[in-house]
Batch of 2 targets.
Target 1
Amino acid sequence: MKFFIDTANIDEIKDAASIGILDGVTTNPSLAAKETAPYKEILTEICKIVPGPVSAEVIATDYDGMMKEAEELVKIADNIVIKIPTILEGLKAIKSLSTNGVMTNATLVFSPSQALLVAKAGATFVSPFIGRLDDISQHGMELIDNICTIYNNYTYQTEVLVASVRHPMHVIESAMIGADVVTMPYNVIKQLIKHPLTDIGLEKFIADYKKAQK
Ligand code: E4P
């Protein structure tokens, strides 16, 4: 399973990259708005830190506008992935970009039908937003299960990139289903390693080691 970090914060990306388990980065306009530098500068910096896929989102909602923005964004680095909203105009853009060998990430996916369409259009990644579904009392994880089943039935190459992740169980359940990628905030990456019994055990080993030195 690939691990992406879901942030536009350079310090968090550097920290996560230094752990050695980071495969890529996803950003969006809301994450970029939390930072002070302009979006393109941030993306340039991120691509220098992480060699894996870095998603950069377009703002336009029409095909021509999306293609124009994509044309600029791909100039940033070879590992830029164009993040496109899952609407009809976006579907057209995904089809054109993937036909031209540009990596794409279909964002704001909330249904299996949307996921099926973006796979047919040739998206590199599909991003189902599970936390936002949970927020409105729908089963986010069920969507991951359904998309994985559909993609496996037809051997679509589109990678299932679980997004809007809120906690470690989202990651574990995605891994059990067999999703290709999980993108998560830095705090979730750090939570994955934590266990109270590890901390208690470590404390005791250190204390006992000190006793054994007497
Ligand atoms: C994914 O690419 C999105 O950036 C992200 O996961 C959205 O998460 P949120 O629902 O926490 O905003």
Target 2
Amino acid sequence: MNNNCVFCKIIKQEIPADIVYEDDDVLAFLDIRAQAPVHILLVPKVHIEKVSDLNENVSYIVSKLVLAANKIARDKGLNEDGYRLVFNCGENAGQEVLHLHLHLLGGRKFTWPPG
Ligand code: AMP
Ligand code: ZN
């Protein structure tokens, strides 16, 4: 846990969030500035800054995040039309919050390549 981290504060329930899923390792909540009809952030409950900080000891976190995202996508009826999962890593990717998070985006079409 990191006392200055906004996602750690959400995990500790020090600031509110619209939580849509929780298990022992993962918390998922609505993105406050949604970029799509469905925009959910999935975070590990441990403070890891970014995807490039993962190592073999904590690589299970990635599968937990992706499996939770798949479950939420199924529950929200996104499976048929599809959805996008995004990890922004570091400055060039536009990572704002330095607590690893997976974006689940759905409910509209997305362009490729990204801007
Ligand atoms: P990134 O650019 O990948 O670091 O994405 C960070 C995301 O966190 C952005 O989409 C923000 O809208 C979102 N965000 C920041 N603060 C909060 C918050 N307190 N509750 C929910 N989402 C947030
Ligand atoms: Zn944190």
